[in-house]
């Protein structure tokens, strides 16, 4: 039992989740009396519980640690904002309206009270921005600052958006820009300068709560998730759940001008755009016949289209050359141990 | 800003919660469109959200750490069971039926996979015991094993039990025994032997899920909470929310025979019964005219009665002598730093 193969770091997050899902016997689709579990752990940004009536409840939880999740340059206010935002972005990804946030915070005993108060103000600011509130939590002491947020939301069953639902021919869209947070992290780690706008994408990511609800209500969107693990990982998740492939146009990827200024290497730019996480944008697919219904909802960019599952996930260069998009990006366990 | 008074450890958990509640502007009782927050953070075991219709949703979160919450003698299976049980006990305390559990787990990278699988089996066993399921979660690496559980439940609004609601003249009841987990912890720390039955109370506490629902449905119970912070702290919480006092009969306190065998010191026995936490029993108040409706529901003991708020919380000795029950017990931040 001391072989490397028996340790957590040797198998990676997704393999471990898969093993534990077997133990938890996650009852996806299984009805439990009045409270059906519509979507269980693992397959979407949130678990989904059937409420009596026309609505469902979505719920998600995320644990963040100071050393692994908060760059040293972040202020306590930003740590609080981020802790709320990661969870509220998952609620948005389902097309749901947030209905409450719970924050469990483990605090080193020698932390300044002023630090914790700033952190709380950041949490509160993000909750208010998303028109919800902190409804509960837990406080205790812990060696390293650790914050586990849980967010709840609700949405009409008919408006719920899953990773499943995209069809060949649907258009692929993203909100905002891609690769901004990744470029900011690279700038910090390599001690290069980058614009405030790019740093803000990493330090104060904005959950697309309002955009998500309008997209869900449009009834034109066929699948959706957030891009927090990076665009490539999101495409693979959508592909797996919807059983579609993708053709993504390289030229269409929406990249901040300041990120283009940051690097003159086109490969590095593509690396940021596809393979770095931390952007809390929405990626979604749209029935092309209903495109008009979503175009005025928010700042969105059409980056490609859905193809057949067996054609895989391809990137089309400006010269119409196709290459495979790889299945890699931000994943906590891999990131630390690869 | 380097004075002791500005550090977290100097003010204790309850003072810190109070400061943060001000920042979070917890909207207790404030209606938010269709989703009223019936009970906000701080005043009960769970936050309560109004669902459309006759039901409400209860939700709670708890963060546990290996060094501060799991005695070294615990098995991984027991750590898993405990992590689920603390949250499911909070759901029971509201009279609600659990509808799902989310577990965020931070795992040291060099942990044996077999350890995590045992932990997951313990979580699953407790969820199954309470007739619910793990519906979501989060995994990442962390220096110290940290588990944040979130439990959801639902209950008819008319059956919801709060800490508020007790009236002078109501009877005070508890399920099971009191002080068992505290005696077990003392035995471990002082390396004295104690029966397996007592150790099990600490290592595998049983959430009173089924009993709680029947108590709620009886419509005879006027207030309820769990005793995880100790009987004395629970009495103070009920008193504060219900605006009642208590007269508790020392002779009536239900103590396991093995705990009575463990110590010959009556003061130590009383210390276990009143001032140690870790028992996941229910304490509740009953309308005396409806006592018969609850007596056959579960193993319960009447330990006293509710009095007027200004008479305080008193312990009556077998010789009818009254002493004050103190406001102390298990609280994470104080426990570590006092």
From TrEMBL, chains A, B:
The gene is hypE. ATP binds at residues 137-138, 163, 228. Keywords: ATP-binding, Kinase, Magnesium, Metal-binding, Nucleotide-binding, Thiamine biosynthesis, Transferase. It catalyses: thiamine phosphate + ATP = thiamine diphosphate + ADP. It comes from Methanosarcina acetivorans (strain ATCC 35395 / DSM 2834 / JCM 12185 / C2A). Pfam families: AIRS, AIRS_C. Belongs to the thiamine-monophosphate kinase family. One of its GO terms (molecular function) is thiamine-phosphate kinase activity. This is Thiamine-monophosphate kinase. Coiled coil: none annotated. InterPro entries: PurM-like_C_dom, PurM-like_C_sf, PurM-like_N, PurM-like_N_sf, ThiL-like. Catalyzes the ATP-dependent phosphorylation of thiamine-monophosphate (TMP) to form thiamine-pyrophosphate (TPP), the active form of vitamin B1. GO terms for biological process: thiamine biosynthetic process; thiamine diphosphate biosynthetic process.
